[in-house]
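Example A, followed by Example B.
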Amino acid sequence: MIKEVKNTKKWEFGDFQTPSVLAYDAIDYLKRAYPDFNPQTIIEPTCGLGAFLIASADTFIDASAVIGVEIEEDYILALNKKIVLRRDVKRFDIKHQDLFTTDWADYISQKNHPILIVGNPPWVTSSDIGRLKGSNLPEKSNFHKYSGYEAITGKSNFDISEWMLLKQLEWLPNTGDMIAMLCKTSVARKILQSVWKEEKFNIESRIIKINALKHFGAAVDACFLIVRKTNNSITKNCLIFSDFKDKEPNSSLGFHQGIMVSNAPSFNCQKNLLGRDPNYVWRSGIKHDCSKIMELKKNGGVLNNGLGESIEIEDDYLYPLLKSSDIGNARLLKTRYFALVTQRIIGQPTEAISKRAPRTWSYLKRHGKRLDNRKSIVYRDKPRFSIFGVGNYTFTPWKIAISGFYKTLKFQIISPIENNPVVFDDTVYFLNTYSEAETEFLSNILNSEPAQEFLESMVFWDDKRPITIELLKRLHLGNLATLLKRETEYEHFTQQRQVHQLGESSRQLEITF
């Protein structure tokens, strides 16, 4: 009997073994969907107990080489016990080695084509492995080529399966070679986006959705991704099927004007709205990475932190806080939460707090170890007790906001609470405004049918965070106002904004906070 892999080991290796019935269903679909595909070499790079390897061998009987690679010795022993009983045992080659240290390009170059790379790669991210202090990780690199800001704020985190699948496509040299993998649906889209964006080679692709909760006990949107190298002209479109039994797709996704879209007709209908508006810049809420200390809850007039401590500090640095759940559920007019905002701009010295609000300074110092131990690089070489995602825009009286997590494109008007500007956590995106009239104007145009159609054409609702700041920045509000015949109002409010921002810039030089 196979030894149970320790829990941390299971997560380090993203170890979710594929049920045999699912593997056979997937490979049977592959054969029906591509009747002309007859692989001569089958490879499963992280084969585990070999469900895909055996299903593929049984389905594609002309394949002369069936190769499995696995790092866990217990799985190798169990798989070999199955294979040794087969009549075609000589076709199989099971290797006990690490995927990440194998020279796959050289190895594959020696095999007969077409090649099928199949399987179920690890469902784990690079940061998950880092948290577990695991070693089963490709050599660290910013392979997405994100900017410095994006990289240090966590965007460079990636799924191991994403890295693996992209590498496998690079390893396959010939037209007609194919990968067919189970993966998270979000990973499948990233793979397609990367290939379409780079245009290194031409592909045809399909996505077939699977029930990950049923097969793996994982509450995540997952699919069977098929990508075949082709010499046909580039087609940046992928058909999506809801089940292996479906003969016709129920949707598709594509890549248009450098953007992944979930609804190409809607996108093309409103594509004139695409662009970055210099007058309105979307922001995310405050990042502090220490909610137990920096977020306080008021009960009966008493402030409590996340450690359960009752505290007494000055009001000078406290601001009403709305979380993503508040925005998503329209709880907007009052709050029990307050955020401790230690700076008005990034990098501002914090020592002034000790004079203006000594009890607040004492509270911060008392919990200084927790704040000093924040791991994000954004706090490196910054004043003690620094925060991130703060600026003049944080303190304007009015805002219009949307939750990144909730599956709705409803934009909410945010007014001051207790005569103070509201702040948000970093899962909320907002535009700062200077008057109620400007906020209502923005709410009207953002919640209009053209804006909603345009944004929804690029939303993938199965993502963990379907609304992103990158999505919102694609909508040019000036173009939208013109389409809605409200350009006069737009010009009026943008002129007012420029006056306010000039005043803020001059005052910023004199900030004593």
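Example B, a separate protein, is given below in the same form.
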Amino acid sequence: MGDMRDAAMTSKAWPFQEARRLLKRYEKAPPEKGYVLFQTGYGPSGLPHIGTFGEVARTTMVRRAFEVLSDIPTKLVCFSDDLDGMRKVPGNVPNPEALEEHLQKPLTSVPDPFGTHESFGDHNNAMLRRFLDTFGFDYEFISARDFYRSGRFDEILLRCAARYDDLMKIMLRSLREERQQTYSIFLPIHPETGRVMYVPMKHVDAKEGTVTFDDPDGGEMTMPVTGGHVKLQWKPDFGARWAALGCDFEMYGKEHATNEKIYDAICRTLGGRPPEHFSFELFLDDQGQKISKSSGNGVSIDEWLTYASTESLSYFMYQKPKTAKRLFFDVIPKAVDEYHQQLRAYHAANDPAKRLNNPVWHIHGGDVPQSTMIVSFAMMLNLASVSGAEDKDTLWGFMQRYAPEASSGSHPDLDAAAGFAVRYYNDFVKPTKVYRVPTPVEREALEALRAELVVYNGPMDDEALQSVVYAVGRDRFDPLRGWFTALYEVLLGASQGPRFGGFIALYGADETVALIDAALAGQLAA
């Protein structure tokens, strides 16, 4: 542990950089509450989406890094703001018109359009927890409804009433004049309609812990700020929650970064110490648009898991959190193969520093498995393409000839990936395949490669066959990449592909000869 802790103190991996910053927070004395609190927030206005998973995964990576650096216990809270009023009806739920009459009600007071839970908020909370549990996250779930109603928030809410003027000054500075006229940090929930009311306060009684305002339906109302009768506007709620829980670390998307000073000021005014922050870039869909849980664009967690393992998604989340990344289906094969490359690199390295800098340490919390992926996901997609594979057994036919010792029992990663690859090929690769006929130079090169393979009696391994492919192309193509582009476009119907020697080793020399014959006869392009 000593060597690992020493390596962690200088590791350039971003979770360790964040963890060291957090460690400085308690260099003089440990936290009075007895643990360091990590928090993630979730707005359950739509179905949980992949960005939510990314936030929890990345926070967990920082938490694991901190646990190497320090013996202080840690806790992760996942907080759902399910008292938030439903401002618009999501477009990706059944019978959306039935929700229209419930606009502005807290999400936990809106009927569940799926008919499976007590409310829409409860449904989305359950979806979030199911997803998080799929990945084995260790967390405490807190519902805003329960937090407000149970009394856990009462002390801070009463302090909000006592320091109302100071909190309002912080907020009013950030608002346009028109909004200042009607703004209040408190949002009463109407006792009859159940709607969240955006009304100015006529009086805030710190001693009684009540607010008085004009009811939009007529008359004056006074309500306690405790017990779930009133909620805080979302920006004050952010800072107040930090103060109430004693939050030490929270990361969020860059859209929150501009409000960071407001959240911090609210927290300080309420007697809390703002947490350490980490702002990450947003995910983009295939059109370069921000992924939104209400519009359902991009890739969902369930969709990713249809085509690849949970670990490959965690790997994608680890990579460059400060960089905006496209999150669409075409990133999946690369993530799968890079994840397994990193597994092999981890076990090949004995140096603790190299291991702690490897993404897989952060994905697995130090308990890193061995990879059994002796064939890459990209190669499987090409095998599926040339063999027209409808199930993974077809791929296993090639892979067992290539590696007779391999089986679904001894190589579980490989077996799972074969199933994923067939599914991915049929859904994404097959519909976009475009073969072309070879140019005269390419035709002559393909005929030469065919002739070499017909008489080839060397070892059926990647390197030996790659040398054959190189030798054929070297005299005919400058630059040589034109030869490989021709192989991919003419034989595989794709713009890019695998090391072609490895492909021949897996697919077979005779089978590759037959593939070349089909291409030269114009059958593939047809």
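On Example B: The mean pLDDT is 91.
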